[in-house]
Fold these 3 entries.
Entry 1:
Amino acid sequence: MTRTVLCVDTEARVSDVAATIDAEEDLTAIEATSVSGAIDAIDDEPVVGVVTAYELDDGSGMEVIEAVRKRSPQTPVVLFTDVSPGEIDTSSFKELVVEYLNRELPDAADRLGFIVNDVIDHSAQVGFLTPDDEDERLKALDSYDIEELPIEESFDRLTDLIAAHFDIAVAFIGLIEEDQENFLACTGADWDSLTREDTICTHSMLQEDVMVVEDIADDKRFNKNEQLENLGIVSYAGANMTSSDGHVIGQVCALDHEAKTYTAEEKHRLEQFAETAMEILELRQSVREARGMEVSQ
Amino acid sequence: MSVHSERFSAADLPIDGIDSGSSILLTGDDTAALKTVFARLVAADDDERSIVLATNAGGRSIQRLLNDARSDAGSRASILTAEGPARGDDVTSVDDIADLTQVGMQFSTLVATAQQSTDRFRSGIFLCSTIAGEVEDTRSVFRFLNSNFLTELRRGEGIGVVAIDRSAEMGTNVDSMISGMETSFTARIDIETTGRNEATLEISGIDGNEGRVDVSL
């Protein structure tokens, strides 16, 4: 599969950078020679990564990085420049964070190709941590034929029950894919998916027990998250959906528009709801597989 | 480009055989004990280089700490400090630890420069809890760890240690954050101070070193 990488540099240098990227198997370069040109290119065509110089005719590479982060926060960017870090003005971009590669290093060109492949392959600049079994976890998730399973009604009933049981505004069942969380059922809101670094479930899935955030305004992991603010979420409780081979593939969650605490018993109850959701998924999958075997025989 | 060969050992700690590529989350609520164990893990052996991001200590202080852990290890260290001035080639300073874009670029540069002279490195952050307390949005800390710290361990022949002071104010649920970070790191060492200059380390994720071990500090 061809992967498109946007290369941003001055007229005099951009073709060299693009040639380095094109030399990599599976990578195809497109070029831009200005901040505005780079933004147009990102808007016109999906890219899997960006390589940008710092000094551009109409601005700096930091502006390119900022534009990428706003549009696609999980797309990795490499700042490839001969300007040293100390000379780069980051005062307005303190929390952008980028991979930096000094093009004056003796092996800079070799490193560039390697690094671009690496950051793309490993989603290496995301604003969340992934479990160390992430690859196996995604395979486990992929083993369920979610689109084909008749789980929607069962899950809708379950989230209705969860919302009523906890007397909360929103209850949902979500599966955590590589880049986003997909909501399979949601009572109290109309949500389809959310970028993974914007979801609290991204953090909750890393904990064995139920994760509770009583008031997200008090937690710096979430209180600058505009998506959560826009959705009106104030409190959160999430329990893991764990596959039979031990991988956390999703979350069953209780949310409210007010701060809320959960007792040990309530957390246990939420875990039971999550186990029930997982059982429904497993049973539907088993039935589908059994029918498939019958047909093939 | 990535070659994982001889394992790493810790200076003056009963921890051996740390695989190249290992990321160690070091936690505790006694800053002095954290500092000592951190130094023993990060102090470079003869054919290695240390790259340390120091949030709460100056370059010379870190060099002395590394020297205490392993003979002359301070001279084999590149230090990026948010406290105190730059000194020569080995101590670089940053003005604002919350400027993770600048910190990350400087740190990556030190790692890349170190790799020009030796393949093996030990990188460390002391203290990540200070960074988490200073930034606006904790997602930036995770992006920084992913972009400028954990990636280097995947690509090169090195180990990395991130220290977190559990008693620090991080503006979040510390236990929840550590528990999340733990699953992303390959190993965890939790320090419990048991007496004057004595502590128990609870180790997980380092083959052959699992469990509790008492150490003198």
Entry 2:
Amino acid sequence: MTLEEKVKQIVVDSLHAEASQVTPEASFVNDLGADSLDQAELMMNIEDAFKQYVGDNIPEEDAAKFETVGSVIEFLKSKGVPETL
Amino acid sequence: MKTALVTGSARGIGRAICEEFARSGVAGRIVACDVQKEWCEETVAALRAIPGVEAEAVAMDVSSEESVVAGVAEAAKLFGSLDIVVNNAGITRDGLLARMTADQWDAVLGVNLRGAFLVSREAAKIMIRARSGSIVNIASVVGLMGNAGQANYSASKGGLVALTKTTARELGGRGIRVNAVAPGFINSKMTEDLPDAVKQQMLSIVPLKKFGEVSDVAKAVAFLASDAASYVTGQVLSVNGGMLMP
């Protein structure tokens, strides 16, 4: 599984989004209809899945920048997560 | 069958809440928490004596973030779910404002308010994913009306009321209800040490002319925690004999 596929899967599960809508450009709020709690849940699930790279808590200043699916993927790459898991 | 976690459940109101949950069927699986696991032995034994009830003790010092994170995780793992949380752990370090030390203030706020925040935060992470849950905070009548000699305690309990309302607003969208019970003068270890003169004075302002029992508080908590209160959130239920009618 690739990093992108894994993140998409987490987004689908966390936001109950349609898989076809979850593209790297998709905005959590504008395209996927996420509210603030959805985004908090998404962060918790990202933390759980990538604990060894991001630790238990992604800092709020990083999380605040996550507007699109792609921004999360880029963040995880910057933390050393390989593109193929 | 629902799983409930109760902090400060070694004795008094906390223990009564555990027993009421078990007897009434509000929760059949109970995690009794206190600073030391051993303190909950009697509570757990009493719970296990009730047919069909499972109970475990978990060590949790609510003033320690590390202890709360570990304790809530352990509790959730024990029974595989966490449906009800009661923030009951509380202490007093009374003194007049002019004589109160910062340590007295910090100790009380650290357990009563910060502790409830930490436990609520950890529980919320589980309940948000489950899309259901019920949290009950044990506030106090003095958090609503103030009490000379308890600047720290009354501030912590007033803070709990505000925490209750804010948490109820944040988590309502996930089907999680958050309420508080504000006991008045209840016969328990916390109040038995008060001077008789103080007790008599308090009794004089209680319309029901008696002190409450821990079971009176426990029954109110059980109601709010249960599905019987499924449309009740962000509320403070006073159990005070009419001493204050907010």
Entry 3:
Amino acid sequence: MKKLFFTTILIAALGMNALAQEMGAAMPFVSIDRNPATSAMAGTQTTSALFNTAAVPFSSGDVVFSFQNWAPGKEKHFNLMAALPFSKSFGLYAIGAYQAGQAYTVYTETGIDKGSFTPSDILAGLGMGIAFSEHLSMGVKGVFVMQTLADDAKYNAFYADAFLLYHSAKVNASAGISAIGSKVKSGDNAYSLPAVIKAGADYTPIEGLKLALDADYYLNLGFAASIGAEYAYKDMIFARAGYHIGTGKTPIPSHLGLGAGFKWKGIHLDVSFLTASQTLGNTLNLGLGYSF
Amino acid sequence: MKKSAFVIIIGIAALASCTKRETAQEPETPVALTEAEAEAAAFVPGVARIKLSADCDGRETAALKQALAGFPVKSVRRLFPDAGEFEERTRREGLHLWYVVEYDESIPATKAAAHFDGLKGVEIYEQPRQIKINDNVFNDPKLSSQWGLINSSKPGADINVEPVWKNYTVGSNKVIVGVVDGGVDLTHEDLVDNCLPGGVNGSKNFTNGSYVIDPNNHGTHVAGIIAAVNNNGKGVCGIAGGDAQKGIEGVKIMSCQIFGTGDGDSAAAIKWAADHGAVVVNNSWGYVMDVDNNGTISPEELERAKGITIEPSDKAAIDYFNKYAGCDNDGNQLPDSPMKGGVVFFAAGNDNIEYGWPANYEGVIAVGSMTSSGYKSSFSNHGDWVDICAPGSSITSTVTGGYGSMSGTSMACPHATGVAALVVSYCGGPGFTADMLKEKLIQGANYSLISESAQIGPMVDVLGAITYGSSNPPSAVTSYTATPVSNSVEFSWKVTGNSNNIPATGYILYASKNSLAGLDPAHPGEDVKYAVITLNGEKIGDTMTARITDLDFQTKYYVTLAGYDYSRSFSAVSSIKTVTTLQNNPPTITTEYNGDYKVKAHETMNITYLTADPDGHPITVEFGSGCAAESWKQGAAAGSYILTVTGKDAEPGTYNTFIKATDSYGLFFNLPIQYTVLENHAPEVVKQIDNMLFTKTSSRFTLDMAEYIQDPDGETLRYSINISNRNVVTLNQQGNILYGSLMGYGLSDITLTGADAKGLTTTLTFKVLVSKGDEPFKAYPNPVVNTLNITVEEQNPVDVLVKIISSTGQTVYENTIKAGAFDPYQIDLSACPPGRYTLSMEYNGKSEQKTIIKK
């Protein structure tokens, strides 16, 4: 399995050259954190079982449906994520999302108004995690993405994630690569997805408090990082905050994350706000889930 | 009475089918006219005649449409209709350009004159004057509609009665004409003086044996044709109706009524006429062929018609009339009778078949019918048994209590009868027999008008009949001049007449290189050239001038002339003179044009040349052809030809052509012509048109294209327009002026093209933008593939801060650009991945975000 992992890294590195001439990445929305709990912590999701399949065997299991009002007025996301550990050494992962974009006015080459169109995206993926020991695991997932921009502009892509994860009672640390996959072709051109090398960790110094840190390197787009914290009162009420540092070229711009959660008998309701970003506005993410 | 069941008046069918065109009118009290009214009354109301300009030739329809635009026209027709084989010369003389325009009579002539006078395309306007028959022809108001007597629409296609009225006779009351028909209206205002009243020696009603005539339209119509009173200022003229103004009574009508409440015996009626003074009898009736009376002759009816013969009693009565009319019991001519024996006239019938009884009995004169155009009437029976034809279509005459028009051989028959009565009036007397009358009628008829194939016989001709066999020729011309004109000799003399002061019908001019001594004027020798000159209304003593042409040049000729009458009886030959013809002179070609013979490419040069022959010889004209731009056509004036050089049709250069006139003897004059077609220059844009920005679709604009595109040669250009988006703007072009109307929001490119006559062009483009006013920015196309255009609602470009941000917030483009409404800034997005982006634009405190799609 180690051999496979490093082969994937190599493929990602080769993709760097292809990104060199592009203005940003294709389908950048694959970088969005769709889990309201981790998005409240500014996207510190690298050790989360609802993102990283390597964390699934060490989790209790979780299913979340969320509604995300992204950059209010521009996109609406409907997300479904599930992390399902079947044993202490194996678990499965699934994700599905539908994104409705803002209707836009169609203009011809000469500027004639020809009506409007509403773009949309569909995203669906499966993954699995395997624990080699009580401390070490790895996980992979594959995701299919279909983007509809106009009647004559529909694009498909496939990408994969692969991560290694270290797990202990107070610390989780993981590294891997995400969104490494096919290119999006349009005419004679092909565009790369926002492939990223990610490393992240979380630490629980005292009962109820979790600190998290993510560091991302988007191939040819630059570095980004997120820090976040969560405080849980009696594992029932949660307060979360974090900050994401992005550059103008990385898919997700800098922003402040705030959020809260409520959990009762496994059922949990979480909300997050992404703010302090000119481009994101007050992005809302509201989720309802069940923890096993 | 038994036979009468098979007898029916021919005219009944015709009467049923014809339309009564005129009705009796109460006489109007004369009212004095003002001078203006009198002037107006001199013209025909509601009618104008115009002649189109010669340059309309070939485009008459368009020229007429232009000339008549805005004028309430009822009808338009050519004054000189298509002349068939003579159309070419009709056009050569410009007569095809004349039109008759009929309009509402309530419109004053002054208004019509104001419309047409000086109108472009109209060369001549005239209001036709009221016309009347001149000289001493009668004053009966409806004479002008009696084409059978005087045919003004086709001269010659009538019974030729006018010269007889003028020179021979108007009828005589010694001649009695029997009208075996329906009853004649004996009290009719136009008949009463020429009818015998009912009585033992006059008219009789054979339907009831009384002497009371029960008038009907048919019999009255027939009687009016024969003897309606002439020159009484009322109604119509009769052929032998006398002259009321001069107190001359016409022939007398004896009404022998056989139709009415019952049928009368036709045989008895004919015999009655013979026994009571009639020498000619008119029978406008025949046996029924159309038994089922459905208007057509079926094959069965036609077969039955072949087997019909004349009823013996009718034959007996006709034979009796022929033998004893005008005679005593022994068959000798009565002292007061104008003729020995009688002539019976029968209508040929109206079934358009080859049979017709009793008309085809050899003992009668069978009369067919012809139209005013000189053709057989469609209904007329025909065959070699038809002896003669006469006018029968649309005949105006008297009807009971008034006047009306009827058609049929029933109307043709009384024309022939009337002619016979007129001939008897003039020729009748002791020794004049019915056979002589028949010979005059048949032999003196006009054989040249009706085709023999029509099978309705020759056209009855009163003058021909009266003068047939004449031995009273005009007197010889005793004094004349003979003057040489080139190879012609021009004669001048005064018209002579015969002993009855009737003018000659014509003269023959003779010329020979040999002596003309002993010349037989009717049969000149082969060495004698001659010219036949027919009089055209001239009277005795009028001066005639005519030429004998085509003689040899510079040759001595003996010349003389002789007159002849209608029956070609010749006068003595005049004195013989000698004349030496002159030399031939070449034709002449002249022009009044004094220009420089240079034409620009857009110009057309027209030069009129006038050809003539000083000797009066016919000339033929030839033309050169210097280049494709050159054409020749005949001008409106006789002998004029127009050289047209159309500059656009030729390359620049100097060209040579000619016009050559050759007389009929080969002598010619050639006029060389040199002209220059100047170089053409393409149109030029002299001023640009600023782009136009509108924020209201109700806005309008006007442009004078001539201010922006002009031709260095001074030519008036043809402009065309191309509009890229007619949903934004439409343009209405009127000459050089463009009227723009905004139709909707958007941008349209407008391209104006100015073209000269040679097809050289230049173009000028400007833009028209109509924006809603609430959309300060615009980005298109959307979705975009490579290049995104950014415009702002400003006439001149301004600085605009532009950001393009991905759906996740990534900034993929940020720049300050310069853009205006007509100067879009183009952003190259070819390297941008497909996806949704937010376009953010900001200038002068205005900002807007739009979603754009990159494909």
